[in-house]
Each structure stands twice: as C-alpha cells, then as structure tokens.
Design goal:
heterodimer, A: 490 residues, alpha+beta, Rossmann fold, 2 domains, 5-stranded mixed β-sheet, 13 helices, 23 strands, globular, B: 291 residues, Immunoglobulin-like, C8orf32 fold, 7-stranded antiparallel β-sheet, 5-stranded antiparallel β-sheet, 39% strand, Papain-like_cys_pep_sf (chain B), Transglutaminase-like (chain B), Bac_transglu_N (chain B), Transglutaminase domain-containing protein (chain B), Circularly permuted ATP-grasp type 2 domain-containing protein (chain A)
Chain lengths: 490, 291
C-alpha cells in the first residue's frame, strides 16, 4: 500500500500528478521577482554583466581541469570516461531558517535509522512488533545477516550518510533517498566552495556563508572517536577499491585532507583479529577503516569469495572489536528503497517524534493494489530498483519509450520486491549560467550527516543539477552537474 | 551417545602461499540436543585459532598464517554427546493449528524467515512437475511431520542417492540425470518444504559410521561428512530428516553446522596471496562411538 510520509498518515492513494505541474523556483517568486535572500545575487549579476559571467565560467572550468577535479562516468558496462567536474557558477542559497529545519530533520532521521539498524541486527523488536514487515527485510539484498549480534562502537552503523533532499511544488523539503552505505560527493561540495570563493569573491563577500571546508576535520574527529584504542592513538585509513572506481578522486581527496593513508585491500593484512597496514617500517596497527568498498567485496572470507578488492579477515577483526569500520557493513538494508517508505514509521517507533522531513509517497510493488495502479499509470511514475543508487536501475516514466516501459513492467512482475514506484515530483528549479544564458534547471541537494560520538550536519551539501532542460535526472553518474550551496548564517 | 570426531585437512600449494586467512566450520553444535564435551583445533604452521559463533549459531574457527608456506594443515578433535534418542519425543500440535504455530514462530523469531524465503541455485523454486511427477503440495488436515516423511518417497523418485557424486552447485540441473549426493537430496527436501512456506534448513554433520557402511556396501571404514535437512515441526521445533536413509535424525546424527543452504556453511573458506593454483587437498574424517 502506498506509504505516505505526512505525520501519521499512511496508505492514501492519490493522483500522482496532482499539483505537480509547477516546480518551485528557488531563485524567483512566482511573479519573477528574485526572492529576498537572492536579491544581492541578482543585483551582482546585473552589475557584472554577461561578459564577466562568461569569463568566470571559463575560469571555473579551467581551474577544475587544472586541479584534476574529475568524475568517472560509465557510458556502458565496461568503459568509464573521466570528465571534468561539471560546475555552474551561480550558487544555491539556503536561508538560516530553512537550514535549521533541514538540519534537525536530518539528525532525527539518521538517529532513527541507526537505532533501526542496531535493532535489526540484534533483537529485531520492530519486526516482532510488526511495524516493518520481517519479510521485507529478509527479502532485502542489503540485509547482511553475517553481522548479526556484532556491537559496533557507540552502536552507530552509518557514520556518514548522504541524504538526498528535493523540494516539492510548495518548496517543502522532502527526502528522496537515504544513502547510508558509502555515499560520495562530499569532496565536490568542498571543491565547489573553493572554486566559488576564488571566482566570485565579490558576491561571496555580500553574504555571510557558513563554512563547509572543515568537513574533513569533522570526519576525522568522528572516525577517531570510533577507535578501539582511544582517540589519541587512533590510526585511520581510507580503504578504496582503486583507481578505476568512479569516486576514486574523492577517496584520494579525503585521505589527503584528513592526513591519513589511502590504502587498497592489498595494503592491509589481518593477523590475530587485528588489522595492519604494510609499511616500509613493518606492520602498523590500524584502528579505523573508512571503507569505500561495497559490503560484498569487503572480505572474501565472509562475503564474495572471489573479491580481490577487500581485506581477508577484516570482518572477524571488526567482530572482535579490534577495528572500527565506517560505515559498518549491513547499512544497505536501511536505504533500501522499499524500506525507505517505512522511515517515518521508524522515526515514530524509536523516537516517539513526528518526522520533521517528509518522504515522497511510495508505491510498494509487492502490494497487489499498488502494483496494478502503477502498471496502469507507468508513464506517470518513477520506477526504481530498491538496492540501486546513482540513478541506475531507474525508469523515468514521462521520458521513457514504450519499449522501456514494457521492459520495466516485465521486471516488476517477475520480482516485485526489487522495485518501488513514486509519482514524478517536479524538483525545484534554480537559475544556472549555461552557455551565455541564464536558464532554469531542476536540482536536488545532498547534505552529509556525520555520526560519531555525536551527530553533526555540515552546513551545506552537494547541489546536483539536471543540466538538460526539463530533465529531472540530477545524478552525477548520469551526467548531472553541480552548484555550490551556501547556507546563510543567522 | 558419545562420539569422538577427528577431522583433518592438508593443503599443498605448488608455490608458496602467504598472508593466509582461514575459516573453518567443523566443530559440532552445543545445544539442548547435543553437548560439546571437548573441542580443539591444531594448525601447522603454528597459528592461534580463534573460535566464534556465526549468524546461524555455528561454531567457527579462524586463524591466519602470514609467512610463506607450501603446506598448511589443520585438524579438529571433538567429543560430543548426543541426546535425541527418540526424534518423535514431543507433543504434536493438532493439524488445524499447525499453520498458526508456524506463523507465531515467525513473528516471535523473525530470523526464521531466512529459512522460508531463501532461494538459490541450491534451493530453487521447484517446478510443478519433476520427471512428470507432480511436486507435492501441503495437504490440510495432515500433520506436517507426516507430510515431510511422505516426501522421502517423492525425493527418492526425483533424485536417487549416489555416494560417488560430489554435491552439485545447481539443483535443477540434476533433475535430468535423476541422481544426486546427500547434500543434493537435502537441498531438494528443503526446497520442497519452503514451497510449503515452512522453515527448513541445511545441516552438515557426522553420522555414526555404521550407517554409511551399510549404504556404501560395507566394505570400508572410509568416512565422510553427511548432510540432511531440518524442518521446523509444530510442537517439536527443529527436527532432522535424512532423505538418504529416509530417517528422522536421532542421536546417531551429530550436527556440525546449519544454514540456509550448503553455501552458507562451507566447512573451509580461505584466502591467500601467492602464485600457486588451487591447492591439493587431503581430507580425512573419523567418527567413533565411545558409548
């Protein structure tokens, strides 16, 4: 049955296109006057003029190119293409009041999801109480039974969460996806800021913008707080799958900025349930692994035995409490898109609070009534594979061909648990400077929540932009672009 | 009954292996049906094995040998006392209440869903017909335990036990030949019971050697691990069923590991560096009754 987020309300079917014709504009009021907080920017754009903006855009591209800020886009299954990070020079602004609500909502959500994960991998109270169907969890690809009854430090599973937010037609922030496994994008958030400050210093000085550049410090502090040997002596590494991974740039960036080693699986070895880095001076004990390798490849002794990316014995060392893993294995079940629909219930169950941030209404394909409705209206729906991310395994109904729709309909019928559907939400729009013109494009926002001893949200995030006119697909892996995000101080 | 079990394995590599991580699941269970009196794992080259329980409650040992070695051997010695003399020593739940009993068990212990929902090449969804014979459905009004025992005959028709066969990685592929190993027969029973939406799990373990002697012609004391299925029987909990011998498991069956299928409980998993191809393996097993 359709899971709807609004406080307490579940199970109400509604026309998915209802009210979706007019996207919220971040920059303008409905009468095309700039919103109050955008007025200084509008003033600046008018003052500097077209030629200056064009020069700034070229300068930004050149700087990103020179500094090697790149992203790998997979055009097909095999070959990846390295691209300069696509960046629009006009920043997106978020007022202090808006951010206050977003920050509170994110903290609430991630706190509840960590409690959910702790419960799922221990007593399973929420399943016994029937709040989330046990069958849904045990059919989920992200459920990692191998880690049952393990106690991670501070009972935290998802130390780094990247929660995708959109704004609906009324400008209300909605959660589109919880990314709780190895979310990427934070390095681009920082690079965007560095570039923006350099090329638009005059505009920057007209606002009081909150910092994001200290994210690596925040992350390192949180990672060190997980150390089994205490924070003072904590040795942290970033574990990467290697140079062919689409987020390799980010792995190198974070290791460099935190001042820790970047390691591949073969650089680490386990001995007597402890993890060591191989160095020219011998083995160095590791306390915290910030791993950017998927669960399945993390340890061939426990997960996929053919993995050559991981570290054999790592899970036993983690289980023994001799090393911390961030994020913990098994978080994928909590960002499963079918479980997502239950997050408002999960918040109410563990925290006894009303969800601050709402969900997008979601149709469960395991529900006969929902499935029938979705298949009859598939051209108006977004269909998503539940365990995919990065825009893969998705059908955007209004932009799809008849063949794509029938292909997805077949896939849904064959494996309903693997899909959910959502009505098409017109993501909010923002002004972008594209090829000499000011154009409006749809965008979303991925803020990052760090959970160590305490939970923190970096004031900003990665604003992703659908660069094609009218497109609602913002994923970087699908060719989306980005903007700097300025959270304004009080 | 009390058994002494020795299980040994020797791996030989063509070129030296390094950074060897090993995990074994060989030790018998310790629960209300059998007590593990003694267990020890010896490893050569020297290592420090650590014991722990996996997510299914199996006792696993792991250890690491980092230095270069061309040979690695380990042996597990255990003594275990089994107690289930009579596999039917429980009060049956009336047939009309059995489904409610199963549903209630799933509600109270959601972990049981693993043993209902899991599908894999080893325990696939079964076709309605195998060899032209209908795959049995669950009948109302007949105790589940009776239907499980009746399934022995259907399994025998679908897959004939062949002691020379290695366990298959794809159960469906066996339907053409009609022959299978003990593990294959156990997987077929599990797939059938799960079709009925009743929890069923795979068991590896050890069997009193006399039985296997009878099965294999009685000409050898060569022993090997045995495999069977366990089904959650209303009123009785997990009960073992051996489709090879067509018996309910009693105190002559020693359980070592349980899982959704054989992949979950591979007795040996290891990873190492080195240029050697797959190692040559020598494995031996000895199960002797002490009392």
């Amino acid at each position: 049955m359709l899971k709807q987020f609004q406080s307490g309300a579940t199970g109400v079917l509604r026309d998915p296109t209802e009210g979706s014709t007019m996207a919220y504009h971040e920059f303008y009021y409905d009468d095309f006057r700039p919103r109050d907080h955008y007025f200084p920017m509008w003033d600046h754009i008018q003052a500097v003029g077209q030629q200056s903006l064009a020069a700034k855009a070229r300068e930004a591209h050149l700087a990103l190119h020179t500094e090697g800020v790149t992203f790998r886009v997979y055009a097909d299954e095999k070959e990846g293409v390295e691209r300069v990070w696509p960046f629009d020079i006009l920043p997106r602004l978020i007022t202090a009041a808006e951010w206050h609500q977003v920050e509170a909502g994110l903290k609430q959500r991630v706190r509840a999801l960590n409690l959910f994960l702790k419960d799922l991998y221990h007593g399973q109270r929420i399943l016994k109480d029937g709040v989330v169907p046990a069958e849904l969890i045990y059919r989920g690809k992200g459920f990692c039974r191998e880690i049952m009854d393990v106690d991670p430090p501070h009972d935290i599973y998802t130390h780094i969460a990247g929660v995708d937010l959109i704004r609906d037609e009324d400008g209300r922030y909605l959660v589109l996806e919880d990314n709780l496994r190895t979310p990427s994008g934070v390095s681009y958030m920082i690079e965007n800021r560095i570039i923006e400050r350099r090329i638009l210093p005059e505009l920057f000085s007209r606002y009081r913008v909150r910092r994001v550049e200290h994210y690596p410090e925040m992350l390192l502090q949180a990672l060190r707080s997980l150390s089994p040997r205490g924070e003072e002596s904590a040795v942290v590494v970033v574990l990467t799958p290697g140079v062919f991974n689409s987020a390799y740039y980010e792995h190198t960036f974070l290791a460099k900025e935190m001042g820790v080693e970047l390691a591949e699986g073969r650089d680490l070895v386990c001995k007597n349930d402890k993890v060591f880095l191989k160095t020219t001076q011998g083995l160095q004990r590791i306390d915290v692994v910030y791993r950017r390798i998927d669960d399945a490849y993390l340890d061939p002794l426990v997960f996929r035995s053919d993995s050559i990316l991981g570290v054999p014995g790592l899970i036993n060392a983690w289980r023994a409490g001799n090393v911390a893993l961030a994020n913990a294995p098994g978080t994928g079940i909590a960002d499963d898109k079918a479980v997502y629909a239950y997050v408002p219930d999960i918040i109410r169950y563990y925290l006894g609070e009303t969800p601050i941030l709402a969900n997008v209404p979601t149709y469960q394909m395991t529900d006969h009534q929902d499935r029938t409705y979705v298949l009859e209206n598939i051209e108006r729906m977004v269909i998503k594979a539940v365990a995919e991310s990065g825009g893969y395994g998705m059908l955007m109904g209004p932009a799809s061909t008849a063949r794509q729709r029938s292909d997805f309909a077949r896939r849904i019928e064959a494996d309903p648990r693997n899909y959910i559907a959502q009505p098409v939400i017109q993501l909010s729009r923002h002004v972008c400077y594209l090829e000499g013109e000011l154009e409006s494009r749809h965008l979303d926002l991925r803020p990052f929540v760090i959970s160590g001893r305490e939970s923190q949200v970096v004031p900003g995030g990665l604003t992703r932009v659908a660069m094609t006119k009218g497109s609602l697909v913002v994923n970087s892996s699908q060719g989306g672009g980005s903007k700097d995000t300025w959270v304004l101080a009080e | 009954m009390r058994y002494h079990i020795e299980r040994a394995c020797r791996m030989r590599f063509s070129t030296p292996a390094r950074e060897h991580q090993v995990q074994v699941r060989l030790a018998p269970w310790d629960d209300e049906t059998q007590s593990l009196m003694r267990v020890a794992l010896r490893v050569e080259p020297k290592a420090e094995p650590v014991a722990g329980y996996d997510c299914f409650g199996n006792l696993a040992h792991h250890f690491s040998v980092l230095g270069a070695h061309k040979e690695l051997s380990f042996s597990l010695v255990a003594e275990v006392e089994t107690r289930r003399e009579n596999p039917f020593d429980f009060d049956l739940v009336p047939p009309e209440r059995e489904r409610a009993w199963i549903d209630d068990s799933l509600r109270q212990a959601p972990r049981l869903w693993d043993f209902v929902l899991h599908r894999s090449p080893l325990t696939p969804d079964l076709p309605d017909l195998i060899f032209g014979r209908a795959t049995p459905d669950l009948s109302e009004g007949v105790p589940i335990i009776e239907q499980v025992q009746s399934a022995f005959g259907w399994i025998r028709e679908a897959l004939r036990y062949d002691p020379r066969l290695e366990p298959s990685g794809d159960l469906s592929s066996l339907f053409a030949t009609g022959r299978g190993s003990a593990a294959d027969l156990a997987h077929l029973m599990i797939a059938l019971v799960r079709r009925w939406k009743i929890p069923a799990r795979f068991v590896s373990g050890y069997l009193d050697a006399d039985y296997l002697d009878d099965l294999d012609g009685g000409d050898t004391r060569l022993q090997r691990p045995h495999y069977w299925a366990e089904v959650l029987i209303p009123g009785g909990g997990w009960r073992g069923f051996d489709p090879v011998l067509e018996l309910a498991a009693d105190a002559t069956y020693v359980r070592a590991a349980v899982g959704r299928d054989a992949d979950d409980i591979q007795p040996l998993r290891h990873a190492c560096l080195g240029d050697g191809k797959r190692p040559e393996m020598d494995e031996t097993l000895s199960v002797s009754r002490l009392s």
